[in-house]
Fold this sequence. Notes:
Elements: H1 14-42, H2 68-129, H3 147-196, H4 202-234, E1 240-243, H5 244-259, E2 264-269, E3 273-276, H6 278-294, E4 304-311, E5 317-323, H7 357-367, E6 371-376, E7 382-387
Parallel strand pairs: 2-4
Antiparallel strand pairs: 1-3, 4-5, 5-7, 6-7
Helix pairs in contact: 1-2, 3-4, 4-7, 5-6, 6-7
Amino acid sequence: MRRPTWRVRGPHSIRWRLTLLYSALFVVTGAVLLAFTYVLVAHSEPSLTAGSPPRLTGRAEGPSTPDPPTVASYVEQRLSVQRSEQLHELLIESALALAVMTVFSLALGRLMAGRVLDPLRTMTAATRRISADNLHERLAVAGPDDELKAMADTIDAVLARLEGAFEAQKAFVANASHELRTPLTLQQAVVDVTLADPGASVETLRTALLRVRAAGEEQERMIDALLTLARSQRGLERQEFVDLAAIVRERLPAAQAEAGAVVRVEARLEPAAVLGDPQLIERLVANLTDNAVQHNLAEGEGSWVSVWTGVDAMGRPGLRIENSGPVIPADQAAGLFQPFRRLGPERVRRRDGLGLGMSIVAAVVAAHGGRVRATTRPQGGLAVEVGLPPSAPVLPGG
């Protein structure tokens, strides 16, 4: 026996509301129809067959006969009385028929409302069965392409996004735990080795403390990057106008100084006003310039970085940055935007990257409603294009 999964909860349920709506519509239309019929009958011409004048009996006395106007008046009076009785009887019978059909319409309306809501009950039961452990299930409602199927397809799309978000969250937590465990393990090992040496000198202790401090700084950078990623994924907290060209012009020399590398820079910086979060935009530019400088060829091998900022023909501000470097497989470029995704030791000259730079870039661009794309260069290196929405409407010819 099938167990009911959806029950009517009284007159406030949608099934009862639909039933009352159907019945109210029937009562209104029925009453209008009966009133229209009553008015037509009431204003129709009386028929002589409805009654017959009384037959005059008795013996006529002399040549006198009944007055014709008196007979006509009597006939009209009898017809009027019969007509009133018929109209009254019609009104009563119509009211009784309407009352009976109203009760019937309640039952029929409840039945039809249940039939209409049957797909909704199925979707409700299927949605209740879906939880975080079985987000792969879908409603997959079949049938005509109506409003209910559109709602089911929308729920399936939401479930697909939730499944992707849950899987990404699980992978992110696992990767973050692994990345944070590495410096913690290093700190523990340095402390244990130092404590195990009873004759450790002051220099040895100082070296151990420096290594522990370096591991702690790496954890701090990792946590800061994770917080930035979480903040960018949460959305924009404030919006101001910032110029991509000004930020790149200020950040690019700092990236070279931090990396300690001499890289030839080719810059064509045109004004590109962006309406967004200034801190997130600065982090976006910093991550792209740092990656372009650090993940490059060794000194003396002709390393270079090319940067462009400006506005395209559609009025959208953008940033394009390219750099030289080893040849990268084309199928690995899209994976750079995943957290903790690296291309291997041949890509990174100095193993000081956290693996979160490009994922932060993607999250910041998504928070601003833009797009980002990374493509590999056949000669080696990478090209990253960032396009952001226009900060003001583009006027024709302007």
